[in-house]
Structures are given as structure tokens and as C-alpha cells.
Design a protein that fits this description.
This protein has 105 residues and is α+β, with helices and mostly antiparallel strands. The chain is built from 4 helices and 4 strands, in the order ααββαββα. It has one domain. The strands form 2 sheets. The chain has a two-stranded antiparallel sheet with strand order 1-2. It has a two-stranded antiparallel ribbon with strand order 3-4. β1 and β2 form a beta hairpin. It is elongated.
Length: 105
Amino acid sequence: MLLTVIIIYGCNSPGRESTGTSLLAEDVKNYCRTDIAFTHIEDVVTKEQSDQMSTFLFAETLKYFYLAFSGSDVNPENHVFNTEAHPCRISNFDRQLVRERLGIN
């Protein structure tokens, strides 16, 4: 859901906070934080917490929150995000080199 907000509004858009990004951050702090780490919710109705911390929390979720609140110029108009939320600048892609490395003629 957080990535959807970034895709729709970009990272530096003035309307991004009114879209619920701040609410998502508060919910992560309120419902996913434990005494020693963060976890995910097993049941959204009861807010029961899991007993594990998924690796994607750091690899993706916190990175998206950073992008959403940092005022970064990274946005979907000039970047592509890989599966671990690493932004790759579109202008840096060499289409011919990609085709060669993938074996596409």
C-alpha cells in the first residue's frame, strides 16, 4: 500500500501526507513494534502480532517510508524500483546493453 502512495503521488509531492502515508507510518509504529523489534500482524481484526520479523521490513518497507518522508527527488517518473525497493534511475539504462546481456536480438 505504501508503494502505491509513492507511485501515485511521488516522494516529494505535497499531497502525499494527506493520502494516508502518515497514517500508515503510525500504524506500523503502533501495531507492528514490539519491545525488541518489529513484526507483522497475524490478524488485522484482533491486531495479534506474529513472533518473527520478516526481512522485507528493512529491505523494502522502511526504505519506502524513507523515500516518502525524506523529500527525495526519487519518484516513479524518473526511477524504477527493483524487488527490494532499490531505486534505479531510468536514464542510466542502456537498452542495447540490456538486450545483449539477456540474449535478445
